[in-house]
Amino acid sequence: MQIRSDIRSTEPGVNRDAETDTVMHHIVESLVAFKEDLDVAPLLAAKVDVSPDQRVYTFTLRDGLLFHNGQPVTSADVKWSWDRWLDPKTNWICRGSFTGGGSGDEERGVKLASIATPDAKTIVFTLDKPSAIFLTLMASVQCPTAIVHKDSVNPDGSWKTPIGTGPFKLGEWKRGEYVMLEKFDKYVARSDAQDGYAGKREAKVDRVKFMVIADPNAARNALVSGDIDILPTVPPASIEGLRLRGTLQLPEHELVGWTAMLIQTNDPLLKDPRMRQAIAYAIDRTQIAQTATHGRSKPNGSAVPAHTKYHTPLHDEWLPYDPAKTKALLAEIGYKGELIKIQTNRRYANMFDNAVVIQSMLHAAGINAQLQVLDWATQLSNYQNGKFQLSAFAYSARPDPYLTYDGIIGKKAARKTVQWENDEAEKLTQQVGMTTVQAERQKLFDDLHRLMMKDVPIIGLYNGNTVTGLSQKIKGYRPWGMNMPILWGVTKD
Q1: What is the helix (H) or strand (E) element at residue 119, kind and residue range?
Q2: Where are the alpha helices (DSSP H) in 349-390?
Q3: 482 and 232 in contact (C-beta within 8 Å)?
């Protein structure tokens, strides 16, 4: 299978990117995981009991669990793993999600008060206050709450190698070329059906090889020639040509990730919501979505993914394409042609194409917009430090809309990646994190979207759609909205 770049490390959630996550999720596992419908289900846990006040979460381990070194998994191993992830010296990127996060008034996530192990199969997590999103955070794809054996680290505490519980274990890693995983013969699978990252994980092949192929055209050619069996994302321009060949499987699936145009609301010109509204009215999001996905996706201005249970017709509403309103607002503001720069990059073709089209649309509506093409590392750094006016961007998959809103809402002085500084929006998001009742969450997500349409701190474009290329020899491969390849349950004839 192709990966676009080499993995950054074998330490989950520390030195990572999407390719690293893809590989590591085959090696390590957590107590819970996301299903295909994006709900959370037990994985290493046989069951999870939650106290009525949502402060105490009790996990019971499944029978027969083993680490890759043959040692049994106990509650002590779970606590050791969590203690290590929460140690500031580990630099685990999601530590803040479980320690209150942020600084000053920018507390986020949940705060663990204690982790107890009353017996070898029971782990009890106690929070300092009720939370409805603890299990969602625990199931994180970007930073697995991985349960690993203590021999995964060196005597000095530094990372050595992942001794996990997954259906595959680490084989050979030839840097810059490939990562080979080997079947873990003593793996104990769940009895329930395979379901996203949850359910039955059964390795049906002896080895899987992740091939590093950075160039998308080279990856396409490798698939056609049979050098690889799985191409997770077929370049859009290649899809129809591959269909005409008729020699490959090309399943299509909707994505949860959100492509957007970021707006720096601290900018002297863009801090006026009328200017942000003027920009929104100038953008034909339908044309952008159709162009970027070759007609396979509709626009989505909402932080709630289009094909999830919380996306109602309300979330299809957004400021319509209306250049006349743009010009009226510009006149009202007294806009005098001040330059607005749109940051983008060439590494991600959709971001670059989105920026080009938006620049043209803004220019046609009377807004002096200019492209600023950067390398991806620089653009990402600028995003992390709030150094942009407009930025063509994309958020990786967040299985619960709360996680997206929590990521973009807050105090910019405390978190520079915040896009929306609004006290009412922050209060609504905090309320979402306190309830598990679907009807109540739905109302809060609806209120957030209505407020976003008024404030326009960000312009959502689309969730996207991906076509995967598979050899005819591959059976059992199941794409899903998280766009994370899964190789358990897969066979090759």
Answers
A1: strand 112-119
A2: 349-364, 376-385
A3: no
Q: Beta strand 369-374 with 340-345: parallel, antiparallel or unpaired?
A: parallel
Contacts of 240 (CB under 8 A, 6+ apart): none
Burial 426-449 (b: 16+ CB within 10 A, else e): bebbebbbebeeeeebbebbbbbb
Model pLDDT for residues 414-471, shown as the tens digit of each residue:
889 999 999 999 999 989 988 888 899 999 999 999 999 999 999 999 998 899 999 9
Q: Which residues contact 150 (CB under 8 A, 6 or more apart)?
A: 77, 80
Antiparallel, parallel or unpaired: β 56-61 and 122-127: antiparallel
379-416 CB burial, b ≥16 within 10 A, e <16: beebbeebebbbbbbbbbbbbbbbbbbbbbbbebeebe
Residue 127 contacts residue 55 (beta carbons within 8 Å): yes
402 contacts 434 by C-beta, under 8 angstroms: no
* Site of tokens 């749109």: 342
Q: Among 66, 221, 228, which Cα is nearest to 147's? A: 66
CA 252 to chain centre: 19
pLDDT digits (tens, 9 = 90+) for 115-154: 999 999 999 999 998 888 899 999 988 889 999 999 999 9
Would you state the structure tokens that stand for residue 192, as one six-digit string? 């329930």
- pLDDT tens string 222-238: 999 999 999 999 988 89
Mean pLDDT value across the chain: 94
- Alpha-carbon distance 49 to 29, whole Å? 19
What is the token pair recorded at 448?
A: 């957030």
pTM (2 decimals)?
A: 0.85
362-373 per-position pLDDT tens digit:
999 999 999 999
Pairing mode, if any, of strands 122-127 and 258-263? Answer: unpaired
Torsional sign, CA 185, 189, 193, 198: negative
Distance CA 112, CA 122 (A): 17
CA angle 467/472/477 to nearest 5° reads 55
Neighbours of 277 (CB within 10 A): 19
Amino acid making up residue 385: N
